[in-house]
Specification:
The chain has about 700 residues and is of the alpha/beta class. It is built from 28 helices and 21 strands. Helix 17 links the parallel strand 18 and strand 19. The structure holds 3-hydroxybutanoyl-coenzyme A. 3-hydroxybutanoyl-coenzyme A binds next to strand 5 and helix 3.
Amino acid sequence: MDSSPHPVTVRRRGRVCLIVIDSPPVNAASHAVRSGVQRALKAAEADADVTAIIILCEGRTFVAGADIREFGQPPGEPSLPALCQEIEACTKPVIAAIHGTALGGGCEIALACHGRIADAGAKLGLPEVKLGLIPGAGGTQRLPRLIGMAAAIEMVATGRMMGAAEALERGLIDVITEGDLASDATAFAERLVSGKAGAQGDAAQPLSLPLRRTGALPVPAYDEPAMAAQIEQIERKARGQLSPGVGARAVLAAATLDLPAGLAHERAAFAGLLASEQSAALRHVFFAERAAARVPALEGATPRPVAIVGVAGAGTMGAGIAVVLAEAGYRVIVAERTEKAAEAGRSRIAALHQRGVETGRITREVAAARMAATAVGHDITAFAPCDLVIEAVFDDLAVKQELFAALSGIVRPDAVLATNTSYLDPNLIGAAASHPERVVGLHFFSPANVMRLVEIVATGRTAPDVLATAFAVSKRLGKLAVLAGSCDGFIGNRIFSSYRKQCEYMLEDGALPHEIDAAMEAFGLPMGPFAVFDLAGLDIAWARRKRLAATRDPAERYVRIADQLCELGRFGQKSGAGWYVYENGKRRPDAGVTSIIEAEARRSGVQRRSIGAEEIRTRIIAAMVNEGARILGEGMAQRASDIDLVFINGYGWPAWRGGPMFQADRMGLGTILAEVERMQARDGAGWEPAPLLVEMERSKQLFGG
Ligand code: 3HC
């Protein structure tokens, strides 16, 4: 982390001492940074010529947190909490001069200072919760003293960043500057020393000597029942994740404990979470997200410029894509096949923007501007000026090939053509286009304006700059992009298919849909698989099974229960019945489904037995990991952690479980392999252990979770 040999240096401006941290990329509070700041602080305090001290950073940001890479290592002195105490106790004013993002430990350093000045674009936050942690260097104790209990609980429990304007309004910072940060911070410090500095625009609250020590401030009065209700809601929403509730309660402790006791309480809770499986999983996810962007094939490739994007098809998927494109500031051209379909598409897109207005996310004007940037019609020649066209039409090879052939005669030869297919081979779709090297898969997940995942699928011919374009556009859309190879279902749906099959086998073997759902919901999924199947509709998977029936290996175990439900017109929630029945929007298990399951088991000669939640989870995870290992072995995913990201961001897998491959490492690959061998013995063809899994278990390796 500390690429610079001297991450902390000292400068003087008159009688003000500037302690400057320069530790790329994000000035994390590593041991070298902490000890450097401590040394400089002590020297400045002892120097009779220094009247005030400023802590500021070089590079792109103020301190963005403790150094996550040091977690788990023996702590080097001073610890971050100790350093914050020293800053607060300093007898000379210490000012934090903030730019970029003051996050976690960085925000805590700022809180311990006696004043805070930030540039207008700065953001402050305590995102430890996202790493399964709580602030561990005084954040939970100092923040409520500045901004009040309710706002502090919200910030700690959600990890939300606060912009400079809001931070000023709430009292988290004292001054915003549009000018040079170091100069304005110096002027602020000088005013403080002379006793003339007041919080911006608030002469009634002078921020002058004697020093205003955050930890010495009283906690503002708060409404106890309202706080209890807020915390209860936070814990309910966290669905098994511990850190939001623990963080909220640590903030609440600031009201009942004095500062030393409050800090001790916070530190103990922080240490407990740091050692937890949940935090290990969430830190894995943090680094996995950064790793996903590292694609060797992109080295040296420059993305093609993209300003105008076409979307072919304005159904649920196309409309969602059009919305997210407009949100990101692209000009969007949408084309449907007929005038009627275009009209329906326009309404769908408008409704999605309108929802943003209703939920308070955007103003009416912003929604109107986004609609104005989106042209919806039924003439595909309108795509002529597009730099990129994303097709989101019916998932049928002939339909997509016909479209790509037509597009080839409309758009420039260097315009990128992306297919949103979820199962078809992008190579075959791309073959229909002129310049097939400009074809790439951009697989969004539904609803595309909500789900964060995009699988980027390289065909055998995709040019590196086209792939780079797909990554650049996804990034601008705020999506998490994962590279996938071209195989049936890519990463997500291919693994999901094994998951689904194993769930259906378990029905014949003895479990009921609601039991499997309950086991997975207790694991942390927001909805069990059968409830999800019902929500998505059973007919699409049915159509696919019928399509693939001719090529299915006859030796593969095939469970007909889902087909029978469809034959009865039970297509899921939309038809009022599927794996469950639905009355007044409420879901309940159905004895009719149990009878079908039991009859099928008898027909297949399976002796049903009760299957416990633990076995349900192990079977599901083993099935997923075995397919994941196949995908890795075939080079269809770059790394195991990419698979974890796909399930967390595309399928609602709880991030605090770290993803299936992470789980496999934790459970032990021996356990997974043994389960897969049982599957092979019981379920036959298709359930052979993946060679990579066997090899890794033999050589005692881990996937790297
Ligand atoms: N420690 C160590 N490395 C960090 C880091 C941290 N706190 N924050 C970021 N990095 C690394 C990343 O791993 C990445 O490394 P790489 O280039 O080798 O992949 C590099 O810095 C750049 O990060 P991003 O790619 O994420 O850059 P962005 O510009 O997109 O985002 C950021 C910058 C907003 C600062 C983002 O990195 C971020 O959110 N970081 C985490 C902040 C955080 O969680 N802080 C709390 C830490 S826990 C803590 O402080 C405990 C305390 O209370 C005691």
